[in-house]
Specification:
By secondary structure, the protein is an alpha/beta fold. The protein contains three helices and eight strands. It has helices at residues 15-26, 68-74, 96-105; strands at residues 9-12, 29-35, 51-58, 61-67, 88-92, 114-115, 120-126, 132-138. A four-stranded mixed β-sheet has the order 1-4-3-2. The radius of gyration is 17 Å and the shape is globular. The mean pLDDT is 92.
Length: 144
């Protein structure tokens, strides 16, 4: 087996709210969205449509979001499980301190910025669906 890339597909309650959260707070861009009718693909969210799926991207990171009913239907092993998870999604970034300051000013649910025992400056953020994202940047002088 050869692995290509990993793109998480996260179960969410509301596609529009999730897309707005990731765009406004984290700088992700909408790549595509699938409306409830599942008969087309949109590059922008329309006010008069509901959506079951969205793909978003920021630099080299892609995230998929799928509305709960559609997700439970497609990912049958998730039936009976709640949204959110005991997992965190770790993203290496640049410009940590400015990014952290911006999120703190928005009063989002973030931990304190700290340097870990393995040499990364990092913090955690909980999104509107309960998913935990970690943002990390190599500390000055650390090489690995």
């Amino acid at each position: 087996m050869k692995a290509g890339k990993l793109t998480p597909n996260l179960e969410v309650a509301d596609i529009k709210q999730t897309v707005d959260f990731y765009a406004e707070n984290l700088g992700f861009k909408l790549i595509m969205a699938v409306p409830e009718s599942q008969d087309s693909v949109d590059q922008n969210l329309a006010d008069d449509r509901q959506y079951v799926y969205a793909l978003m991207q920021k630099d080299g990171v892609e995230l998929m979001f799928q509305r709960s009913d559609s997700f439970k239907n497609d990912v049958v092993l998730s039936k009976g499980l709640s949204i959110g998870a005991s997992v965190s999604f770790y993203m290496e970034i640049e410009g940590m301190e400015e990014f952290y300051k911006t999120l703190k000013e928005k009063e989002l649910s973030v931990t304190e910025l700290k340097t870990s025992w393995y040499g990364m400056q990092e913090f955690y953020l909980k999104d509107i669906n309960g998913y935990i994202l970690c943002f990390g940047q190599k500390s000055e002088g650390d090489e690995y």
